[in-house]
């Protein structure tokens, strides 16, 4: 059994107690998000928490679903009507492994942190979201991204408003988080996006997250990637999801794409009979 009190460094970051220290932390996170859409709380996860999260991730690492494809920064099909140099026509190899949420026990460390009311309220206050609900998808509310040597996540924009991640273990080398803040805020800014893709941009910020760091990132307008990894050690990152509508789940197609399977609830919510589909 785990408790949020043992998994989080609440002495350094008293997010469970209303008062000046919590107010100052929330204000600092909001300021960073307003500035460039990225906020990091260094070492929010305690030493014991990191060890517990790593043991949990390694214990279910063989349950990860690996996918390989080529994608552009917008996750859209190629459009031959555009010039070859247009960033929408620049495609990159993407290799990815997600360990689905149904591998993480309710009493395990990842779900214990996610389910903690004070932790969730801290995330909500930091994001200033009025509508904020735990993701009801049994495959996707808490997942772990696992990456190995040669892997990385190429340049892209997110389709969701924000992501909340916890660094669990880094690779031996590589794996920096790189982003061009708000590069398409207001307009698509294709010329600057092209510069990021070809390595000539001066707008890219690089961050090396350490195990225990919490990151809140708003990636809809900020181009970002995870640089390729090197070495034998795998990179683990926990991803926690909240949404703006209660009871939301993903489509069967999206679940199969990311996790290699879909559950009856996904078909039922899509108006389909689950017993007519075989994964």
CATH topology, by name, is Jelly Rolls
CATH class: Mainly Beta
Rg value: 19 Å
User: What is the level-2 CATH architecture name?
Assistant: Sandwich
- Identify the overall geometry: globular
CATH superfamily: q2cbj1_9rhob like domain
Q: How would you state the average pLDDT, rounded?
A: 95
- Strand/helix succession: HHEHEEHHEEEEEEHEEEEEEHH
Features:
alpha+beta; 23% strand; 279 residues; Jelly Rolls
List strands and helices in order, with pairings.
Blueprint: H1 4-7, H2 20-36, E1 38-41, H3 47-59, E2 65-71, E3 92-99, H4 109-115, H5 117-127, E4 133-134, E5 142-147, E6 153-156, E7 163-169, E8 173-174, E9 177-180, H6 190-198, E10 205-207, E11 214-217, E12 223-226, E13 229-230, E14 235-240, E15 242-243, H7 252-259, H8 264-269
Antiparallel strand pairs: 1-11, 2-3, 3-5, 4-15, 5-14, 6-12, 7-11, 7-14, 8-13, 9-10, 9-12
Helix pairs in contact: 2-5
Short description:
Helix content is 27%, strand content 23%. By secondary structure, the chain is α+β, with helices and mostly antiparallel strands.
Could you characterize what this model shows?
There is one protein chain. It is globular, with a radius of gyration of 19 Å. The protein has a 7-stranded antiparallel β-sheet. Strands 6-12-9-10 form a 4-stranded antiparallel β-sheet, with helices on one face. The chain has a two-stranded antiparallel sheet with strand order 4-15. The longest helix has 17 residues, at 20-36. The protein is of the alpha+beta class and 279 residues long. 27% of the residues lie in helices and 23% in strands. Helix 2 (20-36) crosses helix 5 (117-127). The chain has helices spanning 4-7, 20-36, 47-59, 109-115, 117-127, 190-198, 252-259, 264-269, and strands at residues 38-41, 65-71, 92-99, 133-134, 142-147, 153-156, 163-169, 173-174, 177-180, 205-207, 214-217, 223-226, 229-230, 235-240, 242-243. It has a single domain (4-248), classed as Sandwich (Jelly Rolls). The model has no long low-confidence stretch (mean pLDDT 95).
């Amino acid at each position: 059994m785990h408790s949020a009190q043992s998994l989080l460094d609440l002495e350094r970051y008293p997010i469970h107690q209303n008062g000046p220290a919590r107010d100052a932390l929330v204000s600092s996170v909001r300021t960073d998000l307003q500035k460039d859409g990225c906020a990091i709380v260094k070492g929010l996860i305690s030493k014991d928490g990191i060890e517990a999260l790593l043991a949990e991730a390694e214990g279910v690492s063989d349950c990860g679903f690996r996918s390989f494809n080529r994608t552009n920064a917008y996750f859209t099909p190629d459009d031959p009507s555009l010039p070859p140099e247009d960033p929408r026509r620049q495609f990159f190899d993407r290799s990815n492994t997600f360990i689905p949420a149904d591998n993480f026990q309710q009493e395990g460390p990842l779900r214990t942190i996610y389910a903690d009311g004070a932790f969730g309220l801290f995330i909500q206050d930091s994001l200033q979201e009025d509508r904020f609900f735990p993701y009801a998808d049994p495959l996707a509310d808490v997942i772990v991204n696992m990456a190995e040597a040669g892997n990385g996540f190429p340049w892209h924009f997110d389709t969701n408003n924000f992501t909340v991640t916890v660094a669990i273990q880094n690779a031996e080398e590589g794996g920096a988080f790189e982003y061009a803040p708000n590069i398409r805020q207001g307009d698509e800014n294709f010329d600057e996006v092209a510069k990021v893709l070809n390595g000539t941009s001066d707008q890219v910020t690089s961050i090396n997250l350490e195990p225990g760091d919490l990151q809140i990132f708003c990636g809809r307008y900020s181009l970002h990637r995870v640089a390729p990894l090197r070495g034998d050690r795998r990179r683990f990152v926990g991803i926690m999801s909240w949404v703006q509508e209660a009871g939301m789940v993903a489509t069967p197609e999206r679940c199969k794409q990311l996790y290699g399977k879909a559950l009856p609830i996904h078909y039922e919510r899509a108006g389909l009979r689950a017993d007519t589909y075989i994964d």
